[in-house]
Amino acid sequence: MDSAVLNLVFQGCFPTQHTCKQPIERFIVLRGETVKRVIISLLITVCLGLFAVTPSALAADIANGAKVFGANCAACHMGGGNVVNSAKTLRKSDLEQYNMASLEAIQVQIQRGKAAMPSFLGRLTPEQIEDVATYVLDQAEKGW
Questions:
Q1: Model pTM score
Q2: Across residues 13-37, what is the average pLDDT?
Q3: Which residues contact 62 (CB under 8 A, 6 or more apart)?
Q4: CATH topology of domain 56-142
Q5: Cα–Cα distance, 3 to 122 (Å, whole number)
Q6: Element (DSSP H or E) covering residue 16
Q7: pLDDT tens per residue across span 55-81
Q8: Contact (Cβ atoms closer than 8 angstroms) between residue 60 and residue 134
Q9: 121 - beta bridge partners?
Q10: DSSP state, 87?
Q11: DSSP label of 80
Q12: d(CA 59, CA 133)
């Protein structure tokens, strides 16, 4: 920027005669609005960042899910298989085929049981059920 332009800008924002305070007040208000906008933008960014992370990733503990799975599910579902019905495994393709490829569907299956699978409602806490369901989905995505 040319020094003459800088001088005009400076004089517009900080007049040498203080008879008219409007440019100074306008500058201060502008700075205040800018600060508000920056703060609001940061808050929105943080909130969007939190929502970008899946709720199950925030709430569920995959390591605990693996532990609970090992103690309660692995006898029938070792390595994502199914010793009772080999067509209905915990592999991603089978979960998708049988409309079970969601956290909610897996949680319902664990809670209610179905066919030869017993209900784990009352045996596992809601948190453990969520952890196991998250673990199963995670493993299915990784191919067991």
A1: 0.61
A2: 57
A3: 131, 134, 135, 138
A4: Cytochrome Bc1 Complex; Chain D, domain 2 (1.10.760)
A5: 78
A6: none
A7: 544 458 999 999 999 999 999 999 999
A8: yes
A9: 124
A10: T
A11: G
A12: 12
